[in-house]
Amino acid sequence: MAIRRLRWVLSLQPLLAIILPFGVVVLLGMLWIQPQIRSDIETRQRQLARAVGMQVESHLHAGAAMVRAAAVVNLKGILPQPEHQRPLNALLETTETISSLYVVAADGKVSDVALKKGDEKHRTDLIGLNLFANPLFRELSQDGKPRWSKTFLSVIHGGLVAAYGVQDDGTTLIGEVDLSFLTKFLQQISTESDLLILIIDQNGQIVADNDGLYTAQQLNIGNIGLVRTGLETKAPSTGQFQFAGRAMIGSISPIRSVDWHILVAKTNSSLYHTVSEIGLIVLVAAIGALAVGILTSIFIARKLASRFDDLSRHAQSIAQGGRSGDWPSSSIDAFSQLSGSLQLMARRLQDSETLYRTLFERLPDGVVLWELPSLTPKQFNTAAHTQLGYTRDEFAELRAEDFHASSSDANIADHQETLKQQGIASFETVYRTKAGESRSMFITLESIELAGQPMVLAIHRDISAWKVAEEEKQNTNELLGMFMQHSPIYTFIKEVTPSESRVLLASENYLQMIGIPGSEMVGKTMSELYPAELSAKMTADDWQVVTDEKVLEIEEEFNGRSYTSIKFPILQGTKTLLAGYTIDITERKHAEEKRLNLERQMLHLQKLESLGLLAGGIAHDFNNILMIITGNADMGLIRIAKGQGPAEHLQRIKQAADTAADLAQQMLAYSGKGTFLVESLDLNQLLEEMLHILQVSISKNVSLQLNLSKQLPAVEADATQMRQIIMNLIINASEAIGKQSGVITVTTNTITCSNTDSQDPWQKEGISSGEYVYLEIADNGCGMNKSTLGKLFDPFFTTKFTGRGLGMSAVQGIVRSHQGAINVSSEPGQGSTFEIRLPASGLPAAPPGIKTSPENWKGQGRVLLVDDEEAVRNIGSEMLTELGFSVVTASDGSDALDTYRTTQGIDLVILDLTMPQMNGEQCLRELRQINPDIKVIMSSGYSELRDAQFLMEQGLVGFIQKPYWMDTLRETIQKASMAV
Amino acid sequence: MTLMNFRTILRLLLCLCIGGSLAACQDSAPIQLGFVAGLSGRVADLGVAGRNGVQLAVEQRNAAGGIDGRLIDLIVRDDKQNPETAKRVVGELIRENVELIIGPMTSSMAMAVMPQLNASNSILLSPTVATTDLAAKDDNFLRVMSVTADYVAKSARYQYHKLGIRTVAALYDMDNRAYSESWLKEFRTAFAALGGRVVLAKSFRSGNDTVFQPLVQQLLAAKADSVLIISNAVDSALICQQVRKLVPEQRIAMAEWASTERFTELAGSTAEGVVVAQYIDRNDSTKRYQDFLMNYRARFKQEPGFAGLAGYDAALVALKAYSIRKPGESLKQAIIGRKSFQGGQQQLNIDRFGDADRRTFVTVVRDNHYVTLE
């Protein structure tokens, strides 16, 4: 592709843009205007020729008319000879067209002649002149028709003349036309200096012209195309012709009466003069404008080109290694953008060059550009020379064979041939380092062309370490294979995908498990080796191992045997591999089961022993209580029979009943079912309220210290049971200190528990993560040994002579029933520390121990008492009646519904929770359907804290635990009556 | 192509175009051929016919491509049979560097212009000038016509031997003095050598004021055997008319100058029997001559006469000279060097003085036509 200078292109294109339209306009103008002008000119010429011809004809007609008139005069014999000369002369004088008039006799001799004044001297010569041979006379003699003659030389003056002849009765009158007169006539009518008017005879000979130049010369122009056409067609014609060395446009028109033609013409230059002038002016102006436009475009092109030149020079300097710097700027937006773009491009190229140069140098493989055919290194990176121990300068002086220590020449030839054929070749070879070491290399060669020169791009990868690693890997694989072959446990390596696990390696002893040796398992999936259900689980487990990247230890059953499989992921590139061991634990499991069975049996025995002990204890205590009750009851009856008051014995019975209730409460507390009235409780406030009673309860040599945390959250707890806990622990602490001086410290705090530490002893208590209220009661008493600690919370376990041994078991039960935990730490002689954690409630604490009803409070209304125990119904009815209520009773839930429906005015229902057929909860739902606003107090022999709270949320107005005293009943009913 | 090469080629092309144009201008410039004759007045028939003959030859040559690709530009000037006019128009042609001027048709005009011709680089090649005053001279005058002596001798011999004429009364035109006096002198000598005698010689001046009857009466009063008219065709016809009016049977002879078709036309029946020696064989039936006649008649719708043929012959000689001229050779040298040229009818031999040797024919007018007798 031809290279052209920008300046030339920028100059040429505007030139073309200017010149081409100009040329087109000029061409169109010429193609259209010129024919139009010519057409107009030819039209004018035709009109002028016609007009001049008509004038000439008119003039000649006048002459002809005169000859005819003379013929009349002469032939009619108006006057005899020679008198008729005078009228002939007079007639001759009437016209300038006819210069002489001949009267010719039949023999052709001139009998008379009329001449203009001045020519009369020729009369004697002319009279008797023989015109017999005259062509006009001959033609007139033949047909006698008046006619015009051809031109001939006049005998009078020798000039060219034409004649008009008339013949009648043998006498011919011939009038000669002086053609010089025609010339004068044409000169008169020729108003334009450059107008050419020619009168042409039938032979093409010029008869007369307006210049008089050609008239007498008898110039024949019949060879001119326009004249020839006019003579031949005898019709008006217009066209161009050459005459006297000038190009002319003319029109020829016939003068029919004399068989002459009139030719009117003007030179082209004359005709087109005005147009030419205008055209010239326009052309000059256009050329001037064109020149200005061209100069301007050239100037602008130069300016534009110079800007490009500036950019080009700057780009060249950068290409030659110069700094980018600031590129030439311009006020033209396009140039400015181009400059900016080039600057950006240069910067990016430089950055790219830097990047690729850095990459080139930092590549771990050696890269060498070998020149051909010398095989000298043209360019190479750092790795190329450092991997062989040469410096850069040393390596630059080397040739390939200087460090190529490989095999045979035949191989090299093969590689060269491959390179030649395919343009690329790869092979392993051995290089020698500068120190003489052999390095295994992987060489990749590629034929390239750089700046038109063929070269070879070589990449030298040092694979020495890789080869060593491969060898080691080979050895390892062999070792692994031997291990797998002789492993005593089942070992495997699998490749895992979401849908299958495929064996890569397996120990040979799988033959024992599944009947297939490990070598034959390779490549098989779990579904091909195991039953469907097991294989699916195994595949799923395997996938979970590799996706979670965690070790999985699971037990599996297969063919009646138990196995423990330990699987762990192996991260190896993109492959998801898994390795593991499977151990046959069938025998061990059997042994474990046996051991567990023995333990269960021992526990059961222990439980039975504990239950026996517990039952024995309870029976013992209750027997004692019953002894008191039955004894005092007998004595009371005896006293009544004797007419004495049984009050003392009744009081003892009541005390015994209190003791029994208390014992029952302790048992419930031990079983975790003691709490029944939960409220948001502030332990700090509770402790402060109990401070006095606690100080009274402990030995005087023991001091009590409270470390109460501020902002202690509330706990959802039963205040009574909390007091029980605190009291039990404080009393135990005091007893542990004994008669020595000691300190009991009570600490409260807030603590956050998390279950991330599996070794945390609190985790063993099963508490969940969250915020807890921490209560610690510590003493510096005698402490406890491990044996005592192990049995501390066992019911009826005690180290004291007094006490039933239910206190600590009750404490544990209460704490657990509040979803809390208790921990003890103690060393003999080091004191003991009891730590209790109770879940913080987040609710504000309610002040404890508010007594709402006075002892003389009476109620009113009707109460429905529902209990399946008749005795309870009886005593309850009496108590309610004592409180001022009318009472109706029901024995179960169904009876209660019927009674409620049929009895009017029931204001309150006291409903037993545990009843056969329909329990209290079911009955409550039915009653609320009958009356959503019904007030119900639930009673129960033992309290389920969870159920009580749930039922409270169902609309209970109160809960009362059996057995209940009158005060409790009164208080509960009063609270219920205030409930909305 | 680099820009440099393109510019170089462009410059070369431009130079070639300019040079070529200049050379082409030079090469293609028409050859200017002059023609001087009396195209108006009483002797216009000679000039017009001579011009027509030259024009025919030029048009034929131009139609054939000209001479070496150059067309011939015929520049015609009318000397009006006036010496001063002749000098003026010839001077114009000389100043326009016209190398060769065909004409004039009359000896008196030739004599008038020869001094300026001899002082120039132009030459005169006359179709019809026959005066002996210009014979055997190394000058710039050449002709394709024999000198009057040739025609006069033949006419004298014929009249004396064939017609038995012993006495002649002559009437001659002093306007063409060089010719007329030369013709008369030669005739007188030749006729006297035979035993005849010119008993009377009257001159006149051709013009509008000339009345011929008195002259003719004087001529006839000499009662010569033959009347000899040495004048142009128009005057000769009028003189014939006058002679026949007075003496219808009078024998008349005339110089070849008047032997045009205009004479027979104007003289009519009075021309019957007039004897004239001329250099055109009216009976020539050769193809060359017949072709010439055909072409001339087609072109000009007229008979060429001797003047037309003479003009044609002169043009042929001139065109031939242009075509054969060697570089550095003048046209005169080319003509004299070649010597022999083919005319429209006969071979022309031009000697070293530029005088031609041409056959002469004795003709008589019969029935308004020239008939060759010998």
What attributes does this structure have?
heterodimer, A: 980 residues, alpha+beta, Beta-Lactamase, 6 domains, 47% helix, 23% strand, B: 374 residues, alpha/beta, Rossmann fold, seven-stranded mixed sheet, five-stranded parallel sheet, elongated
Description:
The complex is a heterodimer of chains A (980) and B (374). With 980 residues, chain A is an alpha+beta fold. Chain A has six domains: 1-271, Beta-Lactamase (2-Layer Sandwich); 363-462, PAS domain (Beta-Lactamase, 2-Layer Sandwich), CATH 3.30.450; 468-584, PAS domain (Beta-Lactamase), CATH 3.30.450; 590-644; 671-839, 2-Layer Sandwich (Heat Shock Protein 90); 862-978, Rossmann fold (3-Layer(aba) Sandwich), CATH 3.40.50. In chain A, strands 1, 2, 3, 4, 5 and 6 form a six-stranded antiparallel β-sheet that branches. A five-stranded antiparallel β-sheet of chain A has the order 8-7-11-10-9, sandwiched between helices. Chain A is elongated and about 230 Å long. In chain A, 31% of the residues are buried. By secondary structure, chain B is of the alpha/beta class. Chain B folds into two domains: 30-146 and 284-359, Rossmann fold (3-Layer(aba) Sandwich), CATH 3.40.50; 149-278, Rossmann fold, CATH 3.40.50.2300. Chain B is 47% helix and 19% strand. Chain B is built from twelve helices and 15 strands. In chain B, strands 7-6-8-9-10-14-15 form a seven-stranded mixed β-sheet, with helices on both faces. Chain B has a five-stranded parallel β-sheet with strand order 2-1-3-4-5, sandwiched between helices. Chain B has a three-stranded antiparallel β-sheet with strand order 11-12-13. The longest helix of chain B is centred in the first third of the chain and has 26 residues, at 3-28. Chain B is elongated. The model of chain B has no long low-confidence stretch (mean pLDDT 89). The A-B interface holds A 2-5, 8, 108, 119, 121-122, 124-125, 128-135, 152-153, 155-160, 202-205, 215-218, 220, 222-223, 245 and B 1-3, 39-45, 48, 51-52, 59, 73, 76, 78, 206, 208-209, 211-213, 234, 237-238, 241-242, 244-245, 262, 264-271, 299-302, 368.
